[in-house]
Amino acid sequence: MGPRPILPLLVFCSLLGAQQAPSPEPKQRVREARELGKQSSEAIPKLQAYLKDPVAEVRVEAVKAVVGLGTQRSLDPLIEATHDPDEEVQIRATDGLVNFYLPGYVETGLTASLKRVGNRIQSRWTDTNDKIVEPFIQVRAEVVHALGQLATGGISMESRANAARAIGILRGRAAIPDLLKALRSKNAQVLYESLVALQKIRDPGVADDIAFLLRDLDEKVQIAAIETTGILQNRGALPRLREVLERTRSAKVRRAALSAMAMIPDESSRDLYSRYLSDRDQDLRAAAAEGFGRLRNPGDRPLVEKEFNDERSMNPRLSKAFALVLLGRTEVAEHSPLQYLVNSLTSRSYRDVARTFLIELSRETGVRRSLEAAAPKGTRDEKICLAQVLARSGDKDTLAVLDALSRDTDLEVAAEGVRALRSLRARLP
Questions:
Q1: Domain harbouring 135, CATH code
Q2: How far is CA 407 from the centre of its chain?
Q3: Tens digits of pLDDT across the chain (429 residues)
Q4: Which of 301, 355, 308, 307 minimizes the C-alpha distance to 326?
Q5: Taking a C-beta distance cutoff of 8 angstroms, is the pair 66, 77 a contact?
Q6: Position 137 in a domain
């Protein structure tokens, strides 16, 4: 379904009905739509009529009003607005759909930077694209379908890229075919957002479909393709990743390639892990350590232990701690690698890195039990982050730990405990 036709003014007027005849002046209709947005959700049927206004400025104000009301009744008008022939309306409708499931998103999404200059829209993309709805959030199929159509048929490349970003945030698995179609675009932002969306959805079945982008000429797209290959653990891509690693002149691409290979542990990569374990580049040292850890060869433990003790930079030291836990150091004790990772949850700069490692580590029952025992004794930040970790990697026995955190005397910890409980229950069979 392409952009829907905008109705002539006389037909539009008939939609509003005789009791509220619209002004013939577009600026007045803009004010009318804005005022309707200050009312309750009962005003949404009237706003739907303004979404058919022949003047784009009026439709923009109408979609802003519908987004602001933000109720369940807003979804159908916003789905309809994704087919509007104006790119600003499409972008605002997309962000409004995400905002319903992730409140506050419109304040940080593409909508927040939109400016209309004449007939053109100016927007500013941010490199931060880490938002994603909780697993227990159920997104309507019609929403995902509309966003999938927009990702491949939007009026502009900006609206297509924004729709791809929205699909990832909403975990829109049903739109994977649309994302793969979008990967045939020549627009770098569309390619990048589609790749990140596939990272968030995490369907290994699409790994081969992105392999052609591993040598893309746009560095940002190439790195995203490399990272997605690692996350989806495409073992068949290892030879191409090695080729990229050894031929690239870009330090960023080299780091991404080795990190991806570390996510796909294979003895054929051991020589690369050895080569870079003591490299001057701390990101390469970190990736090499992670690769050794995931190989799970106990014979590597003395080497990694020495590297951990000698390391002075925080980022590779976290990676070496992660590797040591994988290689058997699963105890939570003073100066132990696992305790080091838990302690790092209090660091604003490295919290996300430590949490990501702990999510992977806690898939092992022994590590999970150690973290469950550590959670009640932790600081506020440690409790909050461990609740998030256990929500992602916990099992049925974890429910009791999260239930206790949900009743913590610290309200922030308790709130996170409740969210973690809901997420874990949604994930368990």
A1: 1.25.10
A2: 29
A3: 456 555 555 555 555 554 455 677 889 999 999 999 998 888 999 999 999 999 999 999 999 999 999 899 999 999 999 999 999 999 999 999 999 999 999 999 999 888 876 667 777 887 778 899 998 999 999 999 999 999 999 999 999 999 999 999 999 999 999 999 999 999 999 999 999 999 999 999 999 999 999 999 999 999 999 999 999 999 999 999 999 999 999 999 999 999 999 999 999 999 999 999 999 999 999 999 999 999 999 999 999 999 999 999 999 999 999 999 999 999 988 889 999 999 999 999 999 999 999 999 999 999 999 999 999 999 999 999 999 999 999 999 999 999 999 999 999 999 999 999 999 999 998
A4: 301
A5: yes
A6: yes
Nearest to 318 by CA among 293, 299, 300: 293
The 3-state DSSP class for residue 149 equals helix
Domain-located, residue 243: no
> Which amino acid is residue 321, in one-letter code?
A
- Among 105, 149, 158, 111, smallest CA distance to 130 is for 105
The answer to whether the pTM exceeds 0.85 is yes
Q: Which residue, 351, 366, 417, 354, is CA-closest to 390? A: 417
DSSP string, 17-48: -GGGPPPSSHHHHHHHHHHHTTS-GGGHHHHH
- Please name the amino acid found at residue 33: A
Measured distance CA(319)–CA(199) in Å, rounded = 21
What is the total count of domains within the chain?
2
> 312 lies in a domain?
no
- 68: containing domain: 1-153+168-182
Concatenating the DSSP letter of every residue in 50-88 gives: HTT-SSHHHHHHHHHHHHHH-SGGGHHHHHHHTT-SSHH
CB 226 within 8 A of CB 258: no
Q: Which segments of 86-189 are extended strands (E)?
A: 115-117, 120-122
Does residue 280 belong to any structural domain of this protein? no
Rounded CA gap, 148 and 154, in Å? 10
* 116, β-bridge pairs: 121
Q: What is the largest CA-CA distance in the chain?
A: 83
Give φ, ψ of 122 to 5 degrees.
-105, 140
Place of tokens 């048929």: 153
